[in-house]
């Protein structure tokens, strides 16, 4: 039975695992240590989530685990992306940024950008940052419009929370524009 594209697409945790495995083959234990000691822990609800996520990636044919006896007395299973896993991962990295990505998934966008080095294409990173800034600026216009019609009787906390969100998006635009200095446009 053929799977739909949605069924084969990993979760953000799955993409984070694929990104790490593109850098170097790793065991489930190695991955758990990375998630436990870095900001990637945001994508794992618990240390025990890594193994089921690896199993799902393997069932979908996106990673393959092989026994490795070279580093210790006890064999461990090292995972690597398959050709299909690499294709889906690279497609995800190059995916066009949409409004929903900005309004509901900034964390996933930053995860994508964090693994852009896999593409070995500075132009792709440049385009990503330009598109990110453009989409956020358009969303900021919407938020500014919402702020203008925000009820005056709304609690001050609600208005301040909206202000905080707007400021976070403005900071992200400034960051994206500054980060462009590190990447060349396509020639």
How would you characterize this protein structure?
The chain has 187 residues and is mainly alpha-helical. It folds into two domains: 5-94, Winged helix-like DNA-binding domain superfamily/Winged helix DNA-binding domain (Arc Repressor Mutant, subunit A, Orthogonal Bundle), CATH 1.10.10.10; 99-182. Helix content is 61%, strand content 6%. It contains nine helices and two strands; from the N terminus they run ααααββααααα. It has helices spanning 5-8, 12-23, 28-37, 50-59, 83-94, 99-104, 106-114, 122-148, 156-179, and strands at 63-68, 76-81. It has a two-stranded antiparallel sheet with strand order 1-2. The radius of gyration is 20 Å and the shape is elongated. The protein starts with a helix and ends in an 8-residue tail after the last helix.
What topology does this entry show?
Layout: H1 5-8, H2 12-23, H3 28-37, H4 50-59, E1 63-68, E2 76-81, H5 83-94, H6 99-104, H7 106-114, H8 122-148, H9 156-179
Antiparallel strand pairs: 1-2
Number of beta strands: 2
The separation of the N and C termini measures: 43 Å
Q: Which strand-content bin applies to the residues?
A: 5-15%
Q: How would you classify the helix and strand content by structural class?
A: mainly alpha
Which short descriptors sum up this protein?
187 residues, mainly alpha, Arc Repressor Mutant, subunit A, two-stranded antiparallel sheet, 9 helices
